[in-house]
Specification:
This protein is mainly α and 167 residues long. It is built from seven helices and no strands. The protein has helices at 3-26, 29-44, 55-77, 99-118, 121-131, 137-144, 148-166. Helix 5 packs across helix 7 (148-166) and helix 6 (137-144) crosses helix 7. The longest helix is centred in the first third of the chain and has 24 residues, at 3-26. The N and C termini lie far apart (55 Å).
């Protein structure tokens, strides 16, 4: 088979999954796309006398190594900067400047507080101990004299009720 056609076929079969794999590792779509292209550039330059038996494994090996190299560069060149030093398009949105967002957030917070207060007593206590006091499930179980499984059920119940407010 023509090497160019073979590479095109490999690219079309694996580009999507490689890009998704790299995105999970680097957390940025643009970086994942660049590393995906670099993976295929490197596979093009791979010279061996033996044909590759598992091209997909080789692609993932190259992509994984590129992701590791990317993270090493990030750590090496990372520095602490203040928010004010960020370019304008990278600065976080300032909710304080939007009264409608502030009012909406306050309404949502008030609804959440009402739901938390309306939880059954044991459920309310477990939720407060976990979310506000930072207790683990095991610590809550010991404090309330119930099983960890019961704690998990109480927390799930609370979260389901709170989610209903947010939807």
């Amino acid at each position: 088979m023509n090497p160019s056609l073979l590479l095109t076929n490999i690219y079309l079969r694996h580009v999507g999954e490689l890009r998704a794999f790299l995105f999970r590792h680097v957390g940025c779509h643009e970086v994942a796309a660049e590393l995906t292209q670099e993976t295929f550039i490197r596979i093009m330059g791979y010279q061996t006398g033996d044909p590759l038996h598992n091209i997909r494994a080789m692609l993932y090996r190259i992509a994984g190594n590129l992701a590791i190299d990317y993270h090493r560069l990030q750590v090496k060149h990372s520095k602490h900067i203040s928010i004010d030093e960020l370019p304008e398009h990278e600065q976080p949105l300032n909710d304080a400047s939007d009264p409608a967002r502030i009012a909406s957030a306050r309404q949502t917070l008030e609804k959440l507080c009402v739901v938390i207060e309306a939880l059954p007593p044991q459920c309310h206590r477990a939720f407060v101990l976990h979310k506000f006091d930072g207790y683990s499930h095991a610590q809550i179980a010991a404090k309330l004299g119930i099983s960890r499984n019961a704690v998990e059920k109480l927390l799930i119940h609370a979260l389901v009720r709170l989610r209903q407010v947010l939807l």
